[in-house]
Design a protein that fits this description.
Its main location: periplasm. It is found in: Periplasm. Residues 1-35 form the signal peptide. Keywords: Signal, Transport. This protein is α/β, with parallel strands linked by helices. It has helices at 11-16, 20-36, 48-60, 73-85, 102-106, 113-118, 161-166, 175-185, 200-212, 239-250, 263-271, 326-338, 340-347, 356-359, 362-367, 372-380, 395-410, 416-432; strands at 39-45, 65-71, 93-97, 110-111, 140-141, 144-145, 147-153, 155-160, 277-281, 297-301, 309-311, 313-320, 383-385. The strands form 4 sheets. Strands 1, 2, 3, 4, 7 and 12 form a 6-stranded mixed β-sheet that branches. A 3-stranded antiparallel β-sheet has the order 9-8-10. A two-stranded antiparallel ribbon has the order 5-6.
Length: 433
């Protein structure tokens, strides 16, 4: 099977669809797995790579049966909190967006892989060197490893090559370039660009966050919003205000209804030819090549301001501390790091890859064109940095506060300076609480 997907519109649209059928299939597979012996139950996402875990990966892995419950993106976080905080042993393995990952590790809900393996008579070898190094840091906490990455993502610029060429423009590398391109390509038929003002993650991280990343120097382990000492730094040099103003510059070149756009709407309007450019997370754009403008899109690193820095995020897998099958879970994770499991996910259509040999393979990149952004990291000298504010246990609430204030600044309800002052004060309250 190739790398393209038949799922419509976008990864996030797919993630919003019902998980009922997947749950029925998981229950069916569980019967066979139990008959075989050991079985690992996965609290799963509703994505292509997650489907592959309980399908192709499960078929090839011989150590234990793999079953799971698939959840749409919005429901997954709440399900994870309920299951883990209550000490439920229903799920042996838990997949998590890296934005949420510190919460289960800090609260003791996840078991440290290092501890599990130290207690094993014959511990398997973890081959983390096979994975992209930017993807393997999120699963470490207080000096111990808790899991492995599943997929790796980054905000990218997706653009219509034909429209950019017709306007006589090069691919934007700076935010000045981007503003110029949006203005020149904007017409009554095709918007110059699209923002995602209607989604918390989409607007706070994809829109505002992508602009924030290049404005000040950020160390690879930091995220540009909070430093390692939990200090609020997103407007330390006025960069938060400047990032809002960059969004306001291109707001006039957005399509009608942009105030309500989240991931699915943004991806859909690009796919259908209603906008010329978008900057958002790479896994959101899976469906572009399934639409009427297939082959007309280019993909590269997001524009930047002063420093070549880009967020790298993704999803990870952890071991539930309440699981009765921790050793089997550790064995499965070790097998995954050999690489074959990731290859199966790629063969199923996954394009947000973290197996380094896939990322380095031009044939793979040609079939999964959003990977071009990671290839362009090398040519542009782009440094990966962390996603904000992943180190904070209450990361979702911090993001919500930032989203509300950034949105107020972009849509004119507040001046950008006031929005950032209010965001800083409110984030400090969340951190203190």
């Amino acid at each position: 099977m190739g790398l393209t997907s038949n799922h419509p519109v976008s990864r996030r649209m797919f993630m919003k669809q019902t998980a009922a059928l997947a749950s029925v299939l998981a229950a069916y597979r569980a019967t066979g797995a139990m008959a075989q012996g050991a079985s690992l139950n996965i609290l799963n996402s509703n994505t292509i790579w997650a489907e592959a875990l309980t399908a192709g990966v499960a078929a090839e892995y011989k150590g234990a049966g793999l079953v799971g419950e698939a959840n749409p993106y919005e429901a997954h976080y709440e399900k994870m909190l309920i299951e883990l905080s209550q000490g439920s042993s229903t799920f042996d393995l838990v997949t998590t967006d890296n934005l949420w990952i510190v919460q289960p590790m800090a609260n003791g809900w996840a078991a440290a892989l290092d501890d599990i393996m130290a207690a094993m008579t014959e511990a398997p070898q973890m081959m983390l060197e096979n994975l992209a190094q930017a993807s393997v840091g999120y699963q470490q906490f207080n000096g111990k490893r808790y899991g492995i990455p599943m997929v790796m993502t980054t905000p990218i610029l997706a653009y219509r090559k034909d429209l950019l060429e017709a306007a006589g423009l090069d691919v934007p590398k700076t935010w000045d370039d981007y503003r110029e391109a949006a203005a020149k390509m904007h017409s009554a038929e095709v918007a110059g660009n699209v923002l995602l003002l209607g989604g918390q993650d989409a607007h706070a991280s994809g829109d505002w966050g992508s602009r924030l990343m290049g404005m000040t120097k950020i160390e690879p382990h930091n995220d540009g919003v909070l430093d390692e000492n939990r200090n609020v730094v997103f407007n330390s040099e006025g960069q938060g205000v400047k990032a809002i103003n960059r969004l306001k510059e291109v707001l006039p070149y957005c399509p009608a209804g942009v105030e309500g756009f989240d991931y699915p709407e943004g991806s859909s309007i690009m796919q259908q030819g209603g906008a010329a450019m978008i900057i958002t997370w790479s896994d959101v754009l899976l469906g572009l090549e399934d639409g009427p403008h297939k082959g007309k899109f280019g993909y590269t690193v997001s524009p930047t301001e002063q420093y070549e820095q880009q967020m790298v995020g993704g999803w990870s897998m952890l071991v539930n501390n309440a699981s009765a099958n921790k050793e089997e879970a550790a064995k499965f994770m070790a097998w995954m790091t050999e690489g074959r499991g990731y290859e199966i996910m790629r063969e199923a259509g996954e394009s947000s890859l973290c197996l380094q040999r896939d990322i380095d393979n031009p044939e793979v990149v040609a079939k999964a064109p959003t990977l071009q952004a990671f290839a362009d990291f090398k040519t542009r000298g782009t440094s990966p940095v962390a996603i904000p504010p992943y180190r904070e246990v209450n990361a979702v609430e911090v993001q919500r506060v930032i989203y509300e204030e950034v949105l107020a600044g972009v849509n004119g309800r507040k001046e950008a300076e006031q929005a950032m002052a209010d965001a800083e004060a409110r984030v400090k309250e969340v951190l203190a609480g």
